[in-house]
Amino acid sequence: MSKARRALRNAVFALALSGAATPALALDKPVNAPAPERIAREGAGLKTAIFAGGCFWGVEGVFSHIKGVKSAQSGYHGGAAATAKYNRITAGGTNHAEAVQITYDPYVIRYDELLRIFFSVVADPTLLNRQGPDVGAHYRSALVPTNAEQRAVADAYLAQMEASGIWGRPIVTKVERLRTFYPAEDYHQDYMVKNPRSPYIVRWDAPKVDALRVMFPSDFRDSFLRDG
Q1: Cut 0.85: pTM above it
Q2: What does the DSSP 8-state code read for residue 108?
Q3: 109 contacts 70 by C-beta, under 8 angstroms
C-alpha cells in the first residue's frame, strides 16, 4: 500500500471511529448516519432494491462486501432503453442515473440497515447531481424501492435524516419510481475488484470499503461478491 493511500485510509478510519458527522463528501469523511427508527419488515425470501449514489463502481464495491447481499450489478435507471449506454448517458440529457441493483436476504441484512450503510459510507445526501469528483444528473443520489415496504422505510429514513441535522445541509436525495433497470456494459461489472490499482478506485472508492469495514464490522464480508 502506498504512503498516500495509507494516509487516506488512516484518516478515514480515524473519522469513522470518532463517530464524527460532517457535511463533507461521504468518501473523505464518512458519516455516522442515525440508526433507523422505521424497521423494514419484508418477510422471507430474497428482495431486490436499487441505489444510485454517484459512480456505480464504488456503490457496487461497497454492496459487494456486505453480508446478506447475494448479487450487486451496475447499471442505469430512470431513462429509456435506446440511450442506456455509458457513452450516451455520460454525455447528459438521458435522465438515467448510474445505479446498482442488489439482491439481498432480509433475514441477514434488512433494507433499513442497507440505507444506513449507504448514507454512512457511500453517498452524501446533500449533494445535488454530483458525488465526489463526478458532476451531472446521472450521478444523482436516489433510492429506488421495489415494493411498498421499502418505499415506506425509505421515506421515513430520509425524513429522519433531515430531522437529525447531522449533515448540516438539506437532504436532496429523492425516492424515485421504479422503472426498468438496464445492466451496464460488462467492463463496468466488478470494476473495483478487477482494477484495484486504478487511481480513481484508490482515491475515491477503496476508502468507502475501508470505512464499511470499520464502521459496520458485523455486516462486513471480506471477500468481494462477484456478479454472476
Answers
A1: yes
A2: T
A3: no
Domain boundaries along the sequence of the chain? 3-215
In angstroms, rounded to a whole number, what is the distance separating the alpha carbons of residues 217 and 2? 24
Per DSSP bridges, beta strands 174-175 and 141-144 are parallel
Q: Pairing mode, if any, of strands 181-183 and 97-104?
A: unpaired
Task: Assign domain 3-215 to a CATH class.
Answer: alpha beta
* Dist. CA 188–CA 56, nearest whole Å: 8
Active-site residue identified among 40, 55, 153, 215: 55
Annotation says 55 is catalytic:
yes
CA–CA distance, 83 with 1 (Å, rounded to integer): 39
Asked if residue 65 lies in contact with residue 222, where contact means CB atoms within 8 angstroms, the answer is yes
Q: What is the mean pLDDT of each run of 10 residues along the chain (228 residues)?
A: 44 41 49 98 97 98 98 98 97 97 98 98 97 96 98 98 97 98 98 96 96 98 86
